[in-house]
């Protein structure tokens, strides 16, 4: 509500309050507008959103459990979140996140935050009278921080691939003079970049979420003060009361405070939407680019493994018969042993090739699913922020 609208409203209420009680009409207009703000499909939308994130939570939990349980006892040391890569000429190790293991725990955290947001929305819309103010205010906080774990997972997973493909000391120095070193390749710089981005994202949205929590709590308190003041004025109304002008001025001062707090809340919602738009686009681009680079590297390994397997194929039957006719009993024995060893090598190579193929397709599928999930969260975040702005503006412009 603008200052001109408040001034016009004050003049109108001053003229009306001298002859009849206008305060029940104002109070009823507020209640009617509040009912219009609750869209009938909002609980259904909250349920659908909750089911989607429950499915994502279950998938992430099952994937994490399978990764842990399918490891052999000797391979459990491969389950790690970080590892230190020591280089001979650097006293500080490189910190490399495990992109194959870090996604699931963070995705579980993100789904839990989003489910808390959905639960708060459903409770607020379905039972507005019995919902505590903390739950009302907590909705915006959980929405602000719900995407932080997912974006952190995208960054750490992408950084792990980015390091292996481009920034590892062997890759970074290839084709370059050993005396020329880029400052970005220093472990301290790379470790700072790796850790600082998730910290900045988490810090920014925690700050926005806490600020919105406090602001919307103050908006709710001011709104309750408005309704309380209107009830008091309605009970104590008298025709031609000289105190009506002063009472109306105090009432519209409260309206002005409510309008200012609401405008600040709208600005915070816009800052949240802009921040998530920037983070989501950046994370999607970074994750997909590093995943493509990793897939290319894996594809080259796959081709090399395929060529290696084709070299150790069975010999031609005619050559085999000639060799068997010209060989002695001892040579036959050695030949059988060599064939046995060769068969074992081919079998191991086949298993390696199968694992590479499985990883190759898994990375493609994982990249697609994660991009869709982050895109869905990004779209939901922007739509929610835009809708919340519209709802708040309608709420104060009654």
Features:
398 residues, mainly alpha, two-stranded antiparallel ribbon, 11 helices, 79% helix
Structure, briefly:
This protein has 398 residues and is mainly alpha-helical. It is built from eleven helices and two strands. α3 packs antiparallel against α4 (103-126), α8 (187-235) packs antiparallel against α9 and α9 packs antiparallel against α11 (329-396).
What structural class do the secondary elements suggest? mainly alpha
Q: What oligomeric state best describes the polypeptide chains here?
A: single chain
User: What amount of the residues lies in strands?
Assistant: under 5%
Record field, number of beta strands = 2
Helicity level, as a percent range?
Answer: over 70%
Shape: elongated
**Rg to the nearest angstrom?**
33 Å
User: Which blocks of ≥5 consecutive residues have pLDDT under 50?
Assistant: 174-179, 309-348
N to C succession of SSEs: HHHEEHHHHHHHH
Mean pLDDT: 73
Please give the alpha-carbon distance between the first and last residues.
9 Å
- Total domain units: 1
As laid out across the biggest beta sheet, the strand order is 1-2
Number of helices: 11
